[in-house]
Design brief:
- Chain A: Its cofactor is [4Fe-4S] cluster.
- Chain A: It comes from Homoserinibacter gongjuensis.
- Chain A: Keywords: 4Fe-4S, Amino-acid biosynthesis, Branched-chain amino acid biosynthesis, Iron, Iron-sulfur, Leucine biosynthesis, Lyase, Metal-binding.
- Chain A: Pathway: Amino-acid biosynthesis; L-leucine biosynthesis; L-leucine from 3-methyl-2-oxobutanoate: step 2/4.
- The complex is a heterodimer.
- By secondary structure, chain A is an alpha/beta fold.
- Chain A contains 16 helices and 19 strands.
- In chain A, the strands form five sheets. In chain A, strands 5-4-3-6-7 form a five-stranded parallel sheet, with helices on both faces. Chain A has a five-stranded parallel sheet with strand order 17-16-15-18-19, with helices on one face. Chain A has a four-stranded parallel sheet with strand order 11-10-9-12.
- In chain A, β15, α12 and β16 form a beta-alpha-beta unit.
- In chain A, α2 crosses α5 and α12 packs parallel to α15.
- The longest helix of chain A has 17 residues.
- In chain A, about 60% of the residues are buried.
- Chain B has a seven-stranded mixed sheet.
- Chain B contains seven helices and seven strands.
- Classes of the chains: A alpha/beta, B alpha/beta.
- Chains A and B meet through α2, α3, α5, α10 and α11 of A and α3, α6 and α7 of B.
Chain lengths: ~500, ~200
């Protein structure tokens, strides 16, 4: 049994560890069990890392104040400003007064409760899910929570990471634990080799289209198989990030050498003996031979093409070479009704080739695709090119550090010479909460994660794509794959 | 939190599936730092349409929302629950809820009951035959009643117990504080710490 081979550093609660092969998710869960729930009560799970941002925390801090409770572990908590922050003119006061109040509230709360905060202008500021991994705080085998559903991102390291609501934020601040019912497990096995031009984003969009926006509800997804092993950490983060779009609170990838190489040497990564102990433990985390998943899904990586959404939920997607689907082709009446509504909102007609769809804007950024590798991918396509005249292109790095790194490589010049706007770090046009928004009726090819009605600004229309598709689309002005540029035809 | 046993009020047949939390409350309304005052923000984009169901006279003062599958998907924003509650809703019935939304609801005293798709259809048809009629959601019996139609709903036992008792989660957890402290003594030194800043 696997537990025999686990090093002595494995936490207590051994009495609860079952004598059978376990999945990655079960191992991380078991190692954080403070108290096993009885008589239908949830388990009490310890939280290793709590990420905080300005939007979902003010009411939680208020709750603490009202109850006279301190933050139990400020040393396991870190805050950054990302959702509200503007991406230009960051040296000026935030123009929107309610946004400014929210940011100032976070600053006051961080000071009052002794929490580390990286504010706008700080070198470590950025999107919370870019900052955690970058600082080396995100690592295998830990539990991570944040009042943000895209916390699933951190599962790419073999951590159990999930989004929580504000009541739970307050709960973690006060107790460093959460009462949780165990999740079911789903294996998503992606075998084969991606063709050039096909990326992690296309894998996850295909997964969501396959299992639907509710398919992962109640599950932790574990991404496995040769195509996942071949991905960089950035690619794995893109995939785990969008687990929530399939309804799953968490997605995970077993740690391996790719993970260790990424983590090692970062500011908060373990060092010396701690590093050796950590790696010895991390090497035991992979799902055991013979462990059972509650559900399994298979994807053939060889068959995948660049993917794009046509509708108003992330499950409404097709290969870019296909056409806008006909709602009447959906057998389920709810799906049919949703498709009809989506086409109306998106102003699309069934049967239109996806590649005929003209866009007004391209957004390159968000916690899904704003890391250095994403920017390099975008730059590799647009270098030496000019954007289509009618398209507005925004490139927004995920963190201040990513911005600096990109500039050191000269990527900023590539973007600005292409005709794109090169911005400061933040959530930007992913969510319509800061000044970066679409105008009503505008259509955008976006590397973000949600194509909901109005997500990028009231009345805006979103097509979710990979950085490579975003780049090709910015050049041609219509939804395009990098293959279209190579072929030169069409 | 207030104890809940039964909820009675106007029921809304909300014929939509995949209602994500961006629709329930758009991000632009998340800038407030309070927990109340979100009633105007609820379904803000859809409410611009005068024919939207919540704008119809017979559904004013509604307390029970009966929706299609996958209600509350997407963003973790608890503001979605606050907005529903501020507007007057006390219960949402759907064939399937997103996990985070359901969890947030349970912590804020918004009852989420699960019934299958055929049953939702029956509830919709019954209410549409008599718009503005009341529904009674009985948490003790775990039933929804509209007129002569009574159907059972599902809710997990723990959430049901907490709602019936009006219990606060943090208080419940802090009963185990000694165990948390004990657990912390076993925490390995390689695990992350945000302080001191490195």
């Amino acid at each position: 049994m696997s537990i025999v081979s686990q090093p002595e550093t494995t936490p207590a609660a051994d009495a609860h560890i079952p004598e059978r092969p376990r999945t990655l998710a079960e191992k991380v869960w078991d190692a954080h069990l403070v108290a096993k729930g009885e008589n239908g009560e949830p388990d009490l799970i310890y939280i290793d890392l709590h990420l905080v941002h300005e939007v979902t925390s003010p009411q939680a801090f208020d709750g603490l104040r009202q109850a006279g409770r301190p933050v139990r572990r400020p040393d396991l908590t870190i805050a950054t400003e990302d959702h509200n922050t503007p991406t230009i003119g960051i040296d000026r006061p935030i123009a929107d007064l309610t946004s400014r109040t929210q940011i100032e509230t976070l600053r006051r709360n961080a000071e009052e409760f002794g929490i580390r905060l990286h504010s706008l202008g700080d070198i470590e500021q950025g999107i919370v899910h870019v900052v955690g991994p970058q600082l080396g705080l995100t690592m295998p085998g830990i539990t991570v929570v944040c009042g943000d559903s895209h916390t699933s991102t951190h599962g790419a390291f073999g951590a159990m990471a999930f989004g929580i609501g504000t009541s739970e934020v307050e709960h973690v601040l006060a107790t460093q634990t959460l009462p949780l019912k165990p999740f079911k497990t789903m294996a998503i096995t992606v075998e084969g080799e991606l063709r050039p031009g096909v990326t992690a984003k296309d894998i996850i969009l295909a997964v969501i289209a396959k299992i639907g926006t509710g398919g992962g509800q109640g599950y932790v997804l574990e991404y496995r198989g040769s195509a996942i092993r071949a991905l960089s950490m950035e690619g794995r983060m893109t995939i785990c990030n969008m687990s929530i779009e399939a309804g799953a609170r968490a997605g995970m990838v077993a740690p391996d050498e790719t993970t260790y190489t990424y983590v090692k040497g970062r500011p908060h990564a373990p060092e010396g003996e701690d590093w050796d102990a950590a790696v010895a433990y991390w090497n035991t985390l992979a799902t055991d031979e013979g462990a059972a998943f509650d559900a399994e899904v298979f994807i053939d990586a060889n068959e995948l093409e660049p993917f794009v959404t046509w509708g108003t939920n992330p499950g409404q997607g097709v290969s870019l070479s296909q056409t806008v689907p006909d709602p009447s082709a959906f057998s389920d009446h709810n799906e049919r009704a949703a498709a009809e509504r989506a086409l109306e909102y998106m102003d699309l007609e069934a049967g239109t080739p996806m590649k005929d769809i003209k866009v007004d804007a391209v957004f390159m950024g968000s916690c899904t695709n704003s890391r250095i590798e994403d920017l390099r991918a975008f730059a590799s396509i647009v270098k030496g090119q000019k954007k289509a005249d009618h398209v507005r292109v925004m490139v927004v790095p995920g963190s201040a550090r990513v911005r600096i790194e990109a500039e050191a490589e000269g990527l900023d010049k590539v973007f600005t010479e292409f005709g794109a706007e090169w911005r400061f770090a933040g959530c930007s046009m992913c969510l319509g909460m800061n000044p970066d928004q679409l105008a009503p009726g505008e259509r955008c090819a976006s590397t973000s994660n949600r194509n909901f009605e109005g997500r990028q600004g009231k009345g805006g229309r979103t097509h979710l794509v990979s950085p490579l598709v975003a780049a090709a689309t910015a050049i041609r002005g219509t939804l395009s794959s990098p293959w279209d540029l190579i072929e030169g035809a069409n | 939190m207030e104890k809940i046993t039964t909820i009675e009020g106007v029921a809304v047949p909300f014929r939509r599936s995949n209602v994500d939390t961006d629709q329930i409350i758009p991000a632009v309304f998340l800038k407030r730092v309070t927990k109340t005052g979100f009633d105007d923000a609820l379904f803000h984009a859809w409410r611009q349409d005068p024919d939207f169901i919540l704008n119809r006279r017979e559904y004013q003062g509604a307390k029970v929302l009966i929706a299609g599958p996958d209600f509350g998907t997407g963003s973790s924003r608890e503001h979605a629950v606050w907005a529903l509650r501020d507007f007057g809703f006390r219960a949402v019935i759907s064939p399937r809820f997103a996990d985070i939304f359901r969890g947030n609801s349970g912590k804020q005293g918004l009852l989420t009951g699960v019934v299958d798709e055929q049953t939702v259809e029956r509830l919709w048809e019954r209410i549409e035959a008599e718009p503005g009629m009341n529904a009674t959601v009985d948490l003790v019996a775990q039933t929804v009643t509209v007129g002569d139609l009574t159907v059972p709903f599902e809710i997990d036992d723990y959430t049901r117990w907490r709602l019936l008792e009006g219990l606060d989660d943090i208080g419940l957890t802090l009963r185990d504080e000694a165990r948390i402290t004990e657990f912390e003594t076993t925490r390995e030194s390689w695990r992350p710490r945000t302080l001191p800043i490195r």
